[in-house]
What does this fold into?
Amino acid sequence: MRGLFLTVEGVEGSGKTTVTKSLAEWLRQKGLTVIVTAEPGGTPLGTHIRELLANFGERTEWAEAFLFLADRTEHVAKVIRPALERGEIVLSDRFTDSTIAYQAFGLGLPLESLMELNRIATNGLSPDLTLLLDVEPEIGLQRVKNRTVFERRALHFHQRVRWGYLWLARREPDRIKVVDASQPLEFVISKAQQFVEEALQRWR
It folds into this structure.
C-alpha cells in the first residue's frame, strides 16, 4: 500500500516546525512509521541549497525559484517517493504550495509557469493532505527570532504570500485545510490532529 503524504505550510512564524514535530510524535505514538522532512534542505544537496537561499540575498526571482525547484526534485526522488513506496507516512515542512505562494504571489513570477515547473519537479506528486497554518504576517514575523533573507523582506511581500496560500486553499479545499494559527498552540495542534486523523481514516 502506498504511504500517506502530509505537508505543513504557512507564512513565516506560523508555527510549521512546531506543529510538524508534534504531529510526528503523535503519529508515532499510534505505532506508525513517519519520515519527517523539510524544504529546502531535506537532502544533502538540499542542505547546501538551503544555506544559499537563507543567506545569499543577491539573486533574481527566477534564480530563487529554480533553486527551490532543484531542491524539490532531489527531495522527491531521494526521500519522499522511496518512503511512500515503502508504505510510510511522509510529513514535510513545506512543499509545492510554498513555490506558488512565495515565488508567484510574493515575487510576481508567472503562476501557470510555476505550476507546470512544480509538476515537472515532482513528476506529478501531490500531498494527500496539506495543513495551512494561517496567521497575519505581522503576528508571524513577531515570533521569528533568527531572520533570514525571507523574513527581512517587506511586509507587503509576506501579505502577498498569505494571499497566495489562501487562494490555493480556496482552489483545493479537499486537500488544503486551513488552521487558525493565531490561536493558542494547543488549539492549533488539536485542529491539525483532527484533520490528520480524517486523512488516516481515508488512507486505511
About this structure: The chain has one domain: 4-37+83-203. The chain has eight helices and five strands.
